[in-house]
Design brief:
The protein has helices spanning 43-50, 57-67, 73-76, 86-94, 114-130, 140-146, 151-167, 180-186, 188-198, 203-210, 218-228, 237-240, 256-265, 307-317, 326-332, 340-348, 352-364, 369-392, 396-402; strands at residues 27-28, 33-34, 53-54, 80-84, 99-105, 134-138, 175-179, 246-252, 275-279, 283-284, 287-291. By secondary structure, it is of the alpha/beta class. Strand 8, helix 13 and strand 9 (275-279) form a beta-alpha-beta unit. It binds tryptophanyl-5'AMP.
Length: 408
């Protein structure tokens, strides 16, 4: 099976020490992202540790050749920086073999934030250029297990998040969004695949991968299989009619531990390993030492923030790479590598020439911190306002259509 031919090594650690702990102080796991460096996580090192491959110029050129389209700015700028088996997906696609996209969201807040939009924006672009189905898992089960929220609250937030996801602009004919709490009980094929996966992974292994210990509730220990199961196409009989199709998963690199486990198990139960595209983290307002996270309101811009809240948060909290006085700034210039307003523009300002001009002007000192923040506010305001307008048009009927298992 072609899924077994990989150009990189998956590191399924069964060591006692969880493999996300870094001796230099970077911690990257599905729940925590912290770094001691002002510029954030050392992604080259992380790639080596996780055993993934760099998205290099060669791969981007192949992307453009195969799709006939320029690559998305998130790929071109190295924000999506790492992959597993993307070459295989492109080979298969060229050979006329289909694939599907899978991504997800753990509904821990009723609104999503700007960081969450990153993998979904790439999914939308991939769905358009490859014209492929997309499944989106809402892990309301995960959130009730990990957070102090009831099943009912997590389930409700899943539906609120589904509206944010639909507002991103996915093709209703090609997208299935599901809540674990709803779907798993309705679909025997999903449950069977989950059990097949659970049968292949020991407690020792999940301890090594996720850092669980003897006091972790058993729901957490079993959960990784739930997130792995959508990578098996037969978990969606209404969509794929029992066919085995390869899966491509775009996500930030914090989710990789789940999929290292999935890739280890898949060939043992007769499935191709899913391919992955990993993004870097959209940083917190206070700086790149942590990712933007829904549990930290002051460090986060939510998709539901008003233009006034957005403006205040950026002006008050966005960490500046500028100098202490205007005179020093004009003389020495600002540091774009740590400046949050500039870093956010790299994610959301699509115009390369404008971005480069801003970088030059800020680095030389011609552009001041207040001016740079104003540029960011002017870029982000229409993005969140338009997002909210589209979200307000998501009716119960549209939601139901997206969340109904059907042929895509
Ligand atoms: P969650 O809700 O933490 O995050 C949803 C998606 O957003 C990514 N992400 C970020 N990307 C860039 N910058 C950030 N600051 C940032 N914060 C979060 C996450 O990597 C993720 O892609 N367990 C998952 C839900 C899930 C899932 C999946 C995610 C289920 N199946 C398959 C990806 C792929 C979770 O809680 O994601």
């Amino acid at each position: 099976m072609s899924g077994e031919i990989t150009n990189n090594i998956d590191k399924l650690s069964i060591d006692k020490k969880p493999d996300f702990f870094d001796d230099d102080g970077d911690v990257v796991d599905p729940w925590t992202v912290t770094s001691k460096s002002d510029t954030g996580v050392d992604y080259d090192k992380l790639m080596k540790k996780f055993g993934s491959s760099k998205i290099d110029v060669e791969l981007l050129t192949r992307f453009e050749k195969v799709t006939g389209k320029p690559v998305h700015h998130l790929l071109k700028r190295g924000i999506f920086f790492s992959h597993r088996d993307m070459n295989l997906i492109l080979n298969n696609y060229e050979a006329g073999k289909p694939f599907y996209l899978y991504t997800g969201r753990g509904p821990s807040s009723s609104s999503m934030h700007l960081g969450h939009l990153i993998p979904f924006q790439l999914c939308k672009w991939l769905q358009e250029v490859f014209d492929v189905p997309l499944v989106i898992q809402l892990t309301d089960d995960e959130k009730t297990l990990w957070k102090d929220i009831t099943i009912e609250e997590a389930h409700k937030m899943a539906y609120e998040n589904a509206k944010d996801i639909i507002a991103i602009g996915f093709d209703i004919k090609k997208t299935f969004i599901f809540s674990d709490l709803d779907y798993i009980g309705q679909c025997p094929e999903f449950y069977r695949n989950m059990i097949r996966i659970q049968k292949c992974v020991t407690f020792n292994q999940v301890k090594g991968i996720f850092g669980f210990d003897d006091s972790s509730v058993i729901g957490k220990i079993a959960f990784p299989a739930v997130q792995a199961t959508p990578a098996l196409s037969t978990s969606f009989p209404a969509i794929f009619n029992g066919q085995k199709i390869q899966c491509l998963i775009p996500c930030a690199i914090d989710q990789d531990p789940y999929f290292r486990m999935t890739r280890d198990v898949c060939p043992r139960i007769g499935f191709q390993k899913p391919a992955l595209l990993h993004s870097k983290f959209f940083p917190a307002l206070q700086g790149a030492q942590t990712k933007m996270s829904a549990s930290e309101a002051n460090s986060t811009i939510f998709c539901c923030d008003t233009p006034k809240q957005l403006k205040n948060k950026i002006n008050k909290h966005a960490f500046s790479g500028g100098q202490a006085t205007v005179e020093d700034h004009r003389r020495i210039g600002g540091n774009c590598d740590v400046d949050i307003a500039y870093q956010y523009l790299r994610f959301f300002l699509e115009d390369d020439d404008k971005l480069e001009q801003i970088r030059k002007d800020y680095s030389s000192g011609a552009l001041l911190t207040g001016e740079l923040k104003k540029i960011l506010i002017d870029v982000l305001t229409p993005i969140i306002v338009q997002h909210q307008e589209r979200r307000s048009k998501v009716t119960d009927d549209i939601l139901k259509q997206f969340m109904t298992p059907r042929k895509l």
